[in-house]
Amino acid sequence: MQQPGTLALQPTLEEIGTPLAEVTFVVLDLETTGGSPATSAITEVGAVKVRGGEVLAELQTLVDPGGPVPAHIATLTGITTSMVHGAPRIEQVLPDLLEFLRGAVLVAHNAAFDVGFLKAAARDHGYPWPAPQVLDTVALARRAVGRDEVPNHKLGTLAGYFRATVTPDHRALSDARATVDVLHALLGRLAPLGVTHLEDLATATDPVPPARRRKRHLADGLPDAPGVYQFRDARGEVLYVGTSTSIRTRVRSYFTAAEHRRRMNEMVMLAEEVVPVVCGTTLEARVRELRLIAEHGPRYNRRSRFPERMPWVRLTVEPFPRLSITREVRPEGQPPGRAEAHIGPFSSRSTAQRAIEALHATFPVRQCSPRLPRIPGPGASSCALAGMGRCGAPCTGGQDEVGYAAVVEAVRAAMLTDPGPVLDVHAARIAALTGEERYEEAAAWRDQLAAFLRGTARAQRSARLSAQSELHAARAVPGGGWELVVVRHGRLCATTTSPAGVDPRPLLAALVATAEQPDAPVLPASAAHPEETDLVLAWLEQPGVRLVAAGDHWACPVRGAERLTDPAATAAAVAAAGPTGLVAA
C-alpha cells in the first residue's frame, strides 16, 4: 500500500527488462574440417534469425577451407573437397555474417566451438569481434531437461525429444534450424522458472541459482558421519531420502554446482529442513534409506518406493499346475515356511512375463489360466498350442496327471535347482537366429533368457539367506575395530562398529540380545524388502567379511542360476550351439 506523501514511480523499461518475445536471436551452426581453429577451418556456415517465434531471415554458404576436407569429415557431413572448391573464403563471408549477427543474441549448440572458430577467423583477417551476448543451448538443456528424460544433451537427442520440425544431419543450415526448435522448447520450459526476459538469460545457465544458494543454511549443524538424511517441506512431508558416508558433506553438495538434476533442484526449493539419522555402519545407512523410502514414498525418490509391487513367478498348486504372476509368496498347502516353486521378485510385471515365456519356450506346460479338473468335462476342447505340440492338452484328457506331473517336475527343477535346460533351448535358438541375421528376434530371446536367469538367481540367493534364522558376521574396519552385523531371515536386525583395540565379542553378544526378532517368512521370500536382502548379501560377500555364526543351508544349488547370470555364460552356450553374433547383454 502506498504511504501518504510518497511519489508513485512507474518502473523504467531497463528495470522491467526486454521480454524474450521481443529479442532477436541468431541461431548459428558451423561445419569445419576438425575440432580446433588452430589446425582446422570452416567449411560451411548456417544461420537463422528469429524473433517472437518467427523466422526473419536465413544465411547459408559453403566456405573454401583452403585445403582438402578430411575423409572422415566428408563421411560425417557429406561435404567433400569438390563441393567447397570455388566457394568463397571465410574472409569473404565474414562481413555479411557479422552484419547478420549485429544487435542479436548469438545462439549455438555447444557455443564455445562455433564462437571459437568465428573469433579466430575475425582475428586472423582483421575484423573486430562484435562480442554479442552468447546463449548455449547445451547449457540451457542441462538446466531444463534432466537425465531421467534424455540420455544426453546432444542436438540430435534433444531435437528428437522435442519433435523438432528439422532433423539435424551435420549440415550447417539444417542443424541451425533444428537448434531453433530446441531453443524455443527450452525457453518454454524455463519460463515457469522465471526466465522470461532478456536479462534473465544472463543467469539462465547459472549452475547455482540464487534462490537455491540461499538454502545452504539447511546443511548447518549436520553431522560429519555416515547415515541417512531426509529433506522435508514446511508441512513435515518427506520429499527425499538419501544416504552418505558423510551426511554434512553430501547435503552441502545440493547447494553447489555439483548438483544439476532438475528434479533435485525442485526438491531443494521446496525443502525447509534436513533431518539426519546417524548410523553405526554404512550398511545400516543403506538399509535405513530403503526402509524410509518404502515407509514414506517420497515423491523425489524413484527407487524402492513400492516393494509390494515387485512380482514373483510361481508354479501353482493344483491338479494341473501352471505358471502365474503373484505379488506375494504363499505356502498354498506346502510345509510350514516353504512354498511351491517361486522365482523373483522382478522389477516389473513385464519382466516377470518374459521369465514365464522363457519357461513356456522350454517346457510344454499349459498356458491357459482356468483351473482344470482331474477329469475333463464333456465338450472340452484343446487350444492351438496342443496342435503345435507345445502342450499335452490335459484339458481334454490328452495327458493324465502322471504324465503332466513329469513336465511340472522339469519346470520345478529349472526354477529351483538347474536352469540348464532353459539355457540350452535359448542358446540354440539365439545361435540359429543370429546365423540367419535375424538379430532383433535373437535379442528378444536373449532378453527372455536373461529375465528368467536373473529372477531364478535372485530367488535362490534370497532363499539361502532367508533360511538363516540367525546369522552373525563381522568385517575389519581400516584403522582398527569391527563392523558387527546380526541378520535374521534376510533382514538386518542389528549392527554397530566396535572401537579399535576392544574385544568385539561381548559387544556382538549384546547386539544379539537386543536385535529385532522378525517373523519367519515363507521361503524364498525374506523378512525384509527384497532390495534390503540384496544389500545384506552383497555386504556378506565382500572380501574380508567373516561369518561368525550361521545355520544349515548356507549354500546355493551347485548347478543353480547364479553360475549363468554372467552374459559370458550365455555367450559360451550360444557359441557351443552354433553361429554367434548377438550374445552381449
Short description, anyone?
This protein is 38% helix and 15% strand. The chain has 21 helices and 15 strands.
Describe, in plain words, how this protein is organized in 3D.
It comes from Actinotalea soli. The longest helix has 28 residues, at 439-466. This protein has helices at residues 13-16, 71-77, 81-84, 90-101, 111-124, 137-144, 155-161, 172-190, 201-204, 210-213, 247-253, 262-270, 282-296, 349-362, 384-387, 401-416, 420-435, 439-466, 504-514, 530-540, 567-577, and strands at residues 24-32, 42-51, 54-62, 105-108, 134-136, 227-232, 238-244, 273-278, 312-315, 323-326, 342-343, 471-476, 482-488, 491-498, 545-549. Residues 1-16 and 580-585 have low confidence and may be disordered. The chain has 21 helices and 15 strands. The protein is globular, with a radius of gyration of 32 Å. It is an alpha+beta fold and 585 residues long. The strands form four sheets. The chain has a five-stranded mixed β-sheet, sandwiched between helices. The chain has a four-stranded antiparallel β-sheet with strand order 14-13-12-15, with helices on both faces. The chain starts with 12 loop residues before the first helix and ends in an 8-residue tail after the last helix. A hairpin with a 7-residue loop joins strand 9 (312-315) and strand 10.
